[in-house]
Write a structure and sequence with these properties.
Layout: E1 9-10, H1 21-32, H2 43-63, E2 70-73, H3 76-91, E3 97-101, H4 106-117, E4 121-125, H5 135-141, E5 146-150, H6 164-174, E6 179-183, H7 195-198, E7 202-206, E8 217-221, H8 247-261, H9 264-282, E9 288-290, E10 298-303, H10 308-317, E11 320-321, H11 337-341, H12 346-349, E12 352-356, H13 363-385
Parallel strand pairs: 1-11, 3-4, 3-5, 5-6, 6-7
Antiparallel strand pairs: 2-8, 7-8, 9-10, 10-12
Length: 386
């Protein structure tokens, strides 16, 4: 990636990432030159269609699946909506029971709440104090009328990694007809995501979490999975997602996946080292706590005695960007359901920030942040006490 265009320190990569230069370049080329409608029969249409096919192959190869199992969407939220609502519509005559965790992203929980209003029943599985759900709890919740189990791979707030393969195995043993979906928006490009090894039928991915464009994403749907579309129209993408495809975004997504997957283990080892460097440095500060996290790129830190938004803006004034919880809801004043679920007390609940890293971050940035935090904490705590 090119040198930074500013001097800020960006530790909010789980919210969004800066696009790779190669992604930007291919998108401009598609918009300026290869701008045809992929449904058109002329050369420009055929060229546009090739971008879609190329990106589908890149993504499919990364997952070790086939290109016709990839449905392009506008991002993670749409992918989750399509997976869950599409399954519910397709299988409602078989049953109306769904199982998910209580620490899912809003784009899963809100859909479940919508389906409950439509007559479906949802069982919510709570995590342990480390933010990890137990496979046996999912198996116990599954019934004869259960049609879908949905569990995220990596939690977006605290970075806990869920045992998806074990959950799938336990669920299949109880009811082999259950469709299994996993929100892999925070795990794709960070740890191995292999639908066959995980034992899942569907996974959701968002492009802007891996240096792709916003408004891009995909849903992997295993061949033979019962699912209905939720967008109707011209029948694009085998009738599963109508509407003229966003070719610039799809082309950019394909490039982002290609670059992300190159040397991924080595890149993520460096990222995890940065995360651990931050956590180790913070251990020396009084009343600072690291919450459970096993993902390589996410650190959840509680600065007790200072409200999260106060610390966030104090760091922002120093050119350091972090977040308080999920970016999709961090601008709203509400307690985190995830932090509540793992049993944090109120002081920690109100003082937790998320630091999330990518391969463009470095040790200098981490060390600079540690210096600023060490200077800010006593001042902010004194101000609060005063």
């Amino acid at each position: 990636m090119e040198d930074k265009i500013d001097n800020s320190i960006y530790f909010d990569n789980s919210a969004t990432t800066r696009v790779y230069p190669e992604v930007r370049d291919i998108m401009i080329k598609v918009m300026d030159i290869d701008y045809g409608n992929p449904s058109s029969l002329h050369l420009k249409g055929v060229t546009a269609e090739h971008y879609i096919k190329d990106s589908a192959k890149i993504i499919a190869d990364s997952l070790k699946v086939t290109p016709d199992e990839i449905i392009f969407t506008s991002g993670g939220t749409e992918s989750n909506n399509l997976a869950i609502i599409g399954t519910a519509l397709a299988k409602k005559r078989r049953g109306k029971h769904l199982v998910t965790s209580s620490i899912e992203h809003a784009s899963v929980l809100a859909v479940m709440q919508f389906l409950e209003k439509e007559g479906f029943e949802v069982t919510y599985i709570s995590p342990d104090s480390n933010g990890v759900v137990r496979p046996e709890d999912f198996a116990d919740a599954v019934r004869d009328d259960t049609i879908l189990v949905s569990c995220m791979h990596i939690n977006n707030e605290i970075g806990s990694v869920q045992p998806i393969a074990e959950i799938s195995k336990a669920v299949r043993k109880k009811n082999p007809d259950v469709t299994i979906h996993s929100d892999c928006i925070q795990s794709f490009g960070k740890i191995e995501v292999n639908p066959k090894k995980m034992g899942v039928d569907m996974i959701s991915v968002s492009g802007h979490k891996i240096h792709g464009p916003k408004g891009s994403g995909f849903l992997y749907v295993k061949k033979g999975t019962l699912i209905r579309p939720i967008i109707y129209g011209g029948g694009q993408q085998k009738n599963m997602r109508s509407g003229t495809e966003n070719v610039p975004a799809i082309a950019g997504l394909g490039v982002a996946v290609s670059i992300t997957m190159k040397d991924m283990p080595e890149k993520m080892a460096r990222v995890e080292a940065l995360k651990n460097r931050l956590i180790e440095g913070l251990k020396n500060l009084p009343d600072v706590y690291s919450n459970s996290q096993t993902a390589p790129h996410i650190a959840s830190i509680s600065f007790t005695g200072v409200r999260a938004e106060v610390m966030l803006h104090a760091l922002e004034d120093k050119g350091i960007y972090v977040s308080s919880g999920s970016a999709c809801s961090s601008n709203k004043r509400r307690e985190s359901a995830v932090l509540t679920a793992i049993g944090l007390d109120r002081d920690k609940l109100e003082s937790t920030l998320r630091f999330s890293f990518n391969e463009t971050n470095d040790e200098y940035e981490v060390d600079s942040a540690l210096v600023e935090i060490e200077e800010l904490l006593p001042v902010l705590r004194h101000y609060v006490r005063g």
